[in-house]
Amino acid sequence: MGVSYVEKGAHTRFTPASAIRPCIGDGNGVTKVTRDGNRGFSFLSAAALASVSEVAGKVAFKMMQFYPDYWAYTGDASYNPTTSVAILHQVGPDKNFMPPNQSQSLGNDDQCFWALTTMSAAEKRFPNPPDNLPQWLSLTQAVFNTQAARWDRGSCGGGLRWQIIPLHSGYAYKNTISTGCFFQLGTRLARYTGNATYAEWAEKTFDWTYNVLGRGDGNEELLGINCLQWSYNAGMYMAGAAYMYNFTNGAGKWKPRIQGILNGTLQDFFTEPPVGPEHIMYEVTCEPCLTCNVDQRSFKAYPSRFMGLTVKMAPFTKDAIMPVLYTSAASAAKQCSYGEDQNTCGQKWYTNEWDKLWGVGEQISALEVILSTLVDTLDPPVTQAKGGTSKGDPAAGGGGSGIRYNGKDGRGGGVYGWVNSKGEFVPHTPDKKDRVGSIVLTVVTFKDFVEAQLELSRSSDLLNPPAILSLPLLLLLGMLFKVPEQRAKVHPDPVVGE
């Protein structure tokens, strides 16, 4: 998963932890906390959008889901214009969140998380874009349509591959988060629109995942299943199942499914002695030994968000979920009193020492879990029939899977490539020259990145120049070691859409 400018540069200001802890669960107190914690994100997003064309990146799309929720919880509309600009910046020419600036490494999960953002905007009645721009619901439907066209029955009987374009190494396998996000997207569209076709897709997706498990090789035989447990997978399926429970008016199969996922989540992703005090959220696979990568350091944000949604959609879960969210939020607050400004959050909420890891992942995780304690203050998400105002388009997305081979819709097989300036299809297979090109592009990209961050650091106290200068070097080294997987873009972008 790639790393964006935003996720490496954001440094969010928090109210001191001593002032946060008494406020957990209190509307006015948490609103103050999240407003304070949000300032750094919004300033950086606005400044970066103005200076860097490829700002959105991979943790940024997950981060943007926070903003419609933040507005709904707090009533603070000051960040709404920036939020809308940031979302619409990434819609791409076919209005399906497949922008050319992300074509090198776009995954189904990346595209789908943007759709969850627009779905949340529709459900929360976040202010709609002007009529001449894509609407929240139609953008969500566009992503669902392109991903439904990629459902791959040819291997393992279904599922979505991780990455979208076969030139990328991630096309070789199917993973839980891509398929799970598609599942949740279907459940939320079913509830919002009342269209049972979305629910049918959702049920088929859940059943396929249950039968296949985690991640498997995308060839004919299922090989190499990865059984590592990640909290955002559990949260994704939990909330999706809760939406189906709500949509089906409590149909029998969904309650035990929710309960099973919830039981596993509480067992696997909340501490018990000797790891730490009871009932504090943690990323069991990588957090204890501090081996989480940048992406994984944001994962706790998503079960925090999705467990809150689960409470709204399936109220019988409230007594099990809310106590662990309160405990986790209070512990997260304690971890947000470090750094030179004493406002920097750490990763391990269950310890009394700072692990000296900071960034968007740590900040957004703390913000989300604290905000989730206010879930009782919100009305349930609206639907098209009851309060929804976002306009939809069931045929949105341009048709097909959104990619091409030999000038046709690409869902597997065929010769993939690009269209040159004359409109001619150019077959392409990455080679050594591409890998050299990747290195050159990486160096150029980070030159621009350093200049942008230095400009930000001169104009605010949000960023620490010495720390920021070290980040591009560390990330550059990581990129160079992963060049064969990068599949360099040394030709024009692949054509998207039909």
UniProtKB/TrEMBL annotation:
GO biological process, alphabetically ordered: carbohydrate catabolic process; fungal-type cell wall biogenesis
Keyword Glycoprotein: yes
GO molecular function: mannan endo-1,6-alpha-mannosidase activity
Family the entry assigns: Belongs to the glycosyl hydrolase 76 family.
Reactions accelerated catalytically: Random hydrolysis of (1->6)-alpha-D-mannosidic linkages in unbranched (1->6)-mannans
Entry protein name: mannan endo-1,6-alpha-mannosidase
GO cellular component: endomembrane system
Keyword flag 4Fe-4S: no
Chief site of localization: membrane
Subcellular locations according to the entry: Endomembrane system
Start and end residues of each stretch annotated as Disordered: 382-406
Enzyme Commission number(s) of this protein: 3.2.1.101
Keywords from the UniProt entry: Glycoprotein, Glycosidase, Hydrolase, Membrane, Signal
Pfam families listed in its UniProt record: Glyco_hydro_76
